[in-house]
Amino acid sequence: MYKPLSDELIREFQRSLWNEREVDIVWTLNAAVRTEDLDLRNTCLGTKAGRVLDEVLKTNRTFRKVNMCVNGIEVEGARALCRGLKVNETSEDLNIAYNNLGEDGAKIVGEMLKVNEGLLKLDLTCNDIYNKGAMYIAEALKVNKRLIELKLEMNDISSDGAAAIANALRKNETLKKLNFEGNNIEGEGAEAVCESLKVNKTLEELNMNRNEISLYGVWEISKGVRQNKTLTVLDIGSALMVGEGADAFLKALSVNKTIVSLNVIGNGIDAEGATLLSKLLKTNRTLQSLFLSGNRIGVKGATAIAEALRVNKTLKKLHLRQNSFGSEGVIATSEALETNTRLTILDLGSNSTTLESVRALGRALELNTTLAVLYLDRADMKTEEANILLTALGANKGLKELMLEQNSLDEEVVEAVQKLIKTNKTLKLLDLSYNTRDHKMVAELEEIGRTNGYLQIKCSPIIDVCICLLYHSCTDIKGCLLYTSPSPRDSCASRMPSSA
Predict the structure, then answer these.
(1) What is the DSSP letter of 93?
(2) What does each C-alpha distance from 341 to 30, 108, 345, 369 come to in angstroms?
(3) Cα dist. 152→126, 188, 207, 431 in Å?
(4) Which of 165, 260, 332, 399 is most exposed, with minimal Cβ within 10 Å?
(5) HSE-up of 160 (CA within 13 Å, CB side)?
(6) How many angstroms separate the CA atoms of 97 and 67, rounded?
(7) Against a cut of 0.85, is the pTM above it?
(8) Residue 355 · residue 327 · CB < 8 Å
(9) Beta strands of 167-210 (E only): which ranges?
């Protein structure tokens, strides 16, 4: 039975490293013979850690995952670490994100990939490898026969670097997941990647979110989507998708039979684009997840999407937050929920509600038995509206999670929650965080959550705190954060990559 590295072993590792007792460090790690997950992320171990792990990885046969994220190992540490990985055939998952590797570090990692026969996943997020570093990795992909997942988020890679990786995809026959999020790839880079999709037969997930993809780039992506037969997950958020570009992409998607998850967050999609998307959803039989948040579909667009929900039989997850469709859009969506029997997750957050729209949603929840998760955070919801919704849940038998953070709810909601737990035994999570500064109300809700036996209640109070962060020098990150009860689901704004 394998288990993660214990806190005690990690502390011993750090103490030995700081005292430069490398022999003790090697002994400590090798003593963890039944440890499968070597998790040393954000421990500021510095360049020496790579030298130590070189010795360990040459002989260790238990570590499957090695996480060195945020440790400042830099080029020297990467060189030593990769020496061990050249002969190690056990480690399958390596995370060296946020380590200031640069172009030279990427070259070292690339040389390791050419001979390594164990790694399946590699995370190089935020290492400033630039185009030259991407080219080194691309050369490795041409010969590597093992890697299936590669993360290159936030590395200042532009079109030339993307083109190099794309060229490698023409030869690579194992990579299944490729993440380019948060780089500077423009239309030409998108064109190169999508040209490779016409011949590549293995890539299943492509993330190009938060790049500089223009209307021209969307056109080129459309061509790749039309011809590719293996891609199942496509993330092209923050690309310009309006007018003829949106039309071309959606026409391509209409003939694609493999994509099950599509992210078009923050793409400028308007009511016209949403109407085209609605037509697609009425006939599409493969798409299961659609992330449409942060666009400008408005009431007309939301109504069109709602019409599609009445007949669509495959969509399970729909994210419509921050689309400025307000009460009318919520009503249209609610009416569609009365007959829809497939949707399990619906995000309507950051779209204003009214009494009328909440009543419509309540009626829908009394009839709908398949929706499991509903987001209504930051919806300008008042206590009376929330109480109507909570009362309606008394007759609901499907909803498992309800998110109502950052609205304007007062102490009267406590009574509604008390009634809810007497009538509904299905709901498992109710999030009421950041609705009040009233600590008494928060305490009452927390007590209900502790004592009811099945419903978890989150109810953090509103806070306004200025936190200044000065990270350890090994991370080379400095900054000041103003913390005012953020919403974790405003993914149409900046998103923290999965590596952190």
Answers:
(1) E
(2) 53, 52, 12, 7
(3) 7, 18, 10, 34
(4) 260
(5) 8
(6) 9
(7) yes
(8) no
(9) 177-179, 205-207
d(CA 108, CA 114): 10
Token pair in block for residue 403: 């998110």
What phi and psi values does residue 433 have, to the nearest 5 degrees?
-65, 150
Q: Which tokens hold the place of 473?
A: 């020098």
CA separation for the pair 113, 115 (Å, rounded):
5
Measured between alpha carbons, how far is 312 from 314 in angstroms, rounded to an integer? Answer: 6
383 touches 355 (CB < 8 A): no
Using CA atoms, how far apart are residues 72 and 98, in angstroms rounded to an integer? Answer: 7
What is the 3 state secondary structure string of 143-176?
Answer: HCCCCCEEECCCCCCCHHHHHHHHHHHCCCCCCC
From the CA atom positions of the chain, what is the Rg in Å? 25
Q: Which helix (H) or strand (E) holds 218?
A: helix 215-227
pLDDT tens-place string over residues 330-345: 999 999 999 999 999 9
Instruction: Name the token pair of 434.
Output: 């950041």
The pLDDT tens digits of the residues spanning 278-335 come to 999 999 999 999 999 999 999 999 999 999 999 999 999 999 999 999 999 999 999 9
